[in-house]
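Review form for a predicted model. The reviewer records the input and the model, then writes brief findings.
Reviewer: anonymous (R2)
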Amino acid sequence: MAFELKYRKDISQLQSDAAHSTDLKRTLGPMNLINLGIGAIIGAGLFSLTGIAAAEHAGPAVSLSFVLAALGCAFAGLCYAEFAAMIPVAGSAYTYAYATLGETLAWVIGWDLVLEYAVGASTVAVSWSAYLAKFLAYFNVHLPTALSMSYWQTPPELAAQGSYGIINLPAVFIVFAVSLLLIRGIQESARANAIVVFLKVAVVIIFIGLGFAYINADNYTPFIPENTGSFGHFGWSGVIKAAGMVFFAFIGFDAVSTAAQEAKNPQKDMPIGILGSLVICTILYVLFSTVMTGVANYTDFKGAAAPVAVAIEKMGITWLGPAINLAIIAGYSSVILVMLLGQSRVFFTMSKDGLLPKLFSDSHPKFKTPWKSNILFAFVVSLFAGFAPIALVGEMTSVGTLFAFVVVCAAVLMLRYKEPNRERPFKTPLVPLVPILGILSCGALLVSLCVSDWMHAARLFVWLGIGQVIYVMYSKKHSKIRAAKA
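Model under review:
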């Protein structure tokens, strides 16, 4: 490891390169960055995880679970904010690892992030397609099975009738539509994302506002249901178990850091974007879960395919169902946008470092976007979304994200030790406590995911193994930092 630490990027050089770079256009302000964070964080998980966590683990105290999960994310978020302000380039955790832990681990993180964003965008595109079909069904428009899902996505009840999917065209469409928007420009993408974020947040606020009038205080008793005798099944252990479940509703804020090279004032605005989006989403999540468990008893959500529909039925507001569905479609659209944005920016930075072919760091002469990376991922992600058995690899996104969180927290610790006097526009408070808590909380969730299904870890290691072959055969030979230090 000591040898590999020789191949670390110089932070001062990174800062100078970022200040003088014209490859990407700096047009994003603090609200753009907050919207990117909200766009990545608020998806359909809010509408499904809340009810499941309440019914199976925490009861009405699921609102406390959201607070605990937010604290866990805040540890990693504070570490990301320190790096994003100090090293305002497009590589996110990949660049932070390169500057602190060396090229080898940086490659692992970069390759991991490429998978995280690809699988994440593909999985969300498939869900976007399903909710689009559901929304159109409200108006008696039904998409043919053969063109709205792949063979692997065909549910058993349709397969029993001899109706099989061939290609998920809506999923392919949304991936290409978002990719073309990203090629057109970051400012245009940010505007589109702002509209979508406004739409889905408006529906969440409408649900919260209308729901308060239908709250039955009896549904909050007991607020923390008595533990049944097994860990995680209600009681305080249930609150903690539910926190681990809803933690994944917060994942996505890290993608904000990939836009650092397109922020107008990254030293000031990146921490605002990362931490501001976390705070806003936490407030919305807590209010949403409080209303949801107040309108309907937590036991009513047991086994419900769409828990939020149970609460809407109790309220008797029929038009709210399609509105929620539309908010989910909007939510997924912005998640796909931020995932594809993050993926292309990480690939762009790895290419600039020589670890990937130069064509992926070519900036569009007019739009100033990494358009060749966008085109590549439009095809790759759409192929996954259109044909692949996404359910088998979906949770790999969470495994990869948690791994990146742990590395970023560890990198903050190492840099504080090695370069304590370096100027930091934003400083993570209570070091070493906050980074250590970040490592422990994210590490514990990472281990629990791998233990609950070892295949998640196996698939990730296979992907990283493929990456190591590419690194040894190509990247090490073309690495700019190795050539400079040879």
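Findings: The chain has a mean pLDDT of 86.
Further findings: The longest helix spans residues 103-137.
Recommendation: see findings above.
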